[in-house]
Amino acid sequence: MDSTDTQTQLETLERDLARDRPRTRTRWVAAAAAAAAVIAAVVVVQVGGDDQADTPAGPVDHEAATELAADFVDAVAAYDAQRAASYLADEAEIELRTSTVDAGSMGAHLRWTRAAGFRLLPERCELQSVSAPAATVACAYDAHGLGSERLDRGPFTDNVLRLTVVDGEIVSGVEQLGSDVFEVTMWEPFVAWLVSNRADEAALMFGDSPWAMRPALSQRSAQLWAENIDEYVRAVERGDAS
Q1: Can you tell me the distance from the alpha carbon of 241 to that of 139, in angstroms, rounded to the nearest whole number?
Q2: Confidence class of residue 97 from pLDDT cuts 50, 70 and 90?
């Protein structure tokens, strides 16, 4: 091999190394970043024979988070305030259509939901996303309310309660209704009838009267909700309300 060929190969090798250096640095930076954020995502590669499968692993127990969310929804559906509250972290708040509920107000809220005839029909809970150490679980459910079952209306479908679970506790949640069908079919007609016929009692039943969007969660309020929904159902059946 003559000196010209040797020099040419050396120059080619140097160019190749120069191209590879940024990639090498990039790989080291990526590796360092991945190590620093190892709690966010870890991938374990299982090799068996000729087959390979990627299985997510790490500090978030997906199955446990999903089961916990499902148990919470089941407790709410059963009006079991003590059990439902036991799944909530100390500072947790669940944003519902009518209220923001924490462990301390869970009992009053479920007393109202029962009095108002709300019945949850839980469906599946599924893992929606993971951002360690948190897992967000979406729990779908159908529901009846305000006498809809007695009036052969509903159930109202495609509702979702999204719950965020961290270290075996629910830290937050938000409810998303499937549509405005319940509003149009039950809530608005009931409120219109109530304000027209029981205005004095309506003022005690809502915490934001006269806007009639947020129910009061007192014992007296729950009693009035139950009584007036009975009256509303009878009024609809007589043709005196819609």
Answers
A1: 34
A2: confident
